[in-house]
Amino acid sequence: MQVNLNIQYEHLNSIQDLDIDDQDLLKAAIKATAFSQAKYSKFKVGAAAKLDNEAIVIGFNIENVSHSVTVCAEIALLSNIIINHSQHKIVTLALGYNNLKGHSKTPISPCGHCRQALIEYEQQSSNKIRCILGSLDGEIIIINGISNLLPLAFSNAMFNNA
Ligand code: THU
């Protein structure tokens, strides 16, 4: 039997096509790239989350000469939220990047490691996260729920599977 997975997302041509709150959140993510420590890759990633109390929290990538020690922007963001805002949930997450070319059209695509961390956060908070994947001045993808970014995800439900 063949099973087809259907993943849905919205595609927009520019930041102007977002409503004003989403524009502000994506701008916050792009602004956060200014704090990124990316001296090895020069690929600055910024993340911004809007919580259920309307607070905006940011994260950015922090690189290390020992490359596997590098922390992605999404992980920095989740750590920030889990430590400082544990009583609140992420409603919308925006990701942006700056590859130092000064412009970019292709929306960022979170790495697998971050998708796994995000899906576990989403499952624990029982709240679908709207995800805005941005570029500096180009196209945008909106994904409703991290499960659309990581189909067939590993989860602890398997620990007790028969
Ligand atoms: N990076 C992130 O911050 N998030 C991702 O989802 C993909 C990759 C960072 C890690 C590293 O500092 C740089 O981008 C290049 O891989």
Q: Concise description?
A:
With 162 residues, the chain is an alpha+beta fold. The protein has helices spanning 20-32, 73-84, 112-125; strands spanning 10-12, 44-51, 56-60, 90-98, 130-133, 140-144. It has a domain at 12-101: Cytidine Deaminase, domain 2, CATH 3.40.140.10.
Detailed description of the structure:
α3 links the parallel β4 and β5. It is built from 3 helices and 6 strands. Strands 1-6-5-4-2-3 form a 6-stranded mixed beta sheet, with helices on both faces. The protein is 24% helix and 21% strand. It starts with 9 loop residues before the first strand and ends in an 18-residue tail after the last strand. It is globular and about 50 Å long. The longest helix has 14 residues. The chain has a domain of 90 residues: Cytidine Deaminase, domain 2 (3-Layer(aba) Sandwich). With 162 residues, the protein is of the alpha+beta class. Bound molecules: tetrahydrodeoxyuridine. The site of tetrahydrodeoxyuridine has 13 residues, from α2.
Mean of the pLDDT scores?
Answer: 95
Tell me what portion of residues adopts beta-strand conformation.
15-25%
Give the C-level CATH assignment of one domain: Alpha Beta
Summarize the amount of helix as a percent range: 10-25%
Question: H/E series, N to C?
Answer: EHEEHEHEE
User: Number of DSSP strands?
Assistant: 6
Q: What is the subunit arrangement here? A: single chain
CATH architecture grouping of one domain? 3-Layer(aba) Sandwich
Largest sheet: 6 strands, mixed
Structural classification: alpha+beta
CATH structural fold name of one domain:
Cytidine Deaminase, domain 2
Alpha-carbon Rg, integer: 16 Å
Strand order of the largest sheet: 1-6-5-4-2-3
Q: What's the N-to-C terminus distance? A: 22 Å
Small ligands present: tetrahydrodeoxyuridine
Uncertain segments are none
Number of helices: 3
Shape call: globular
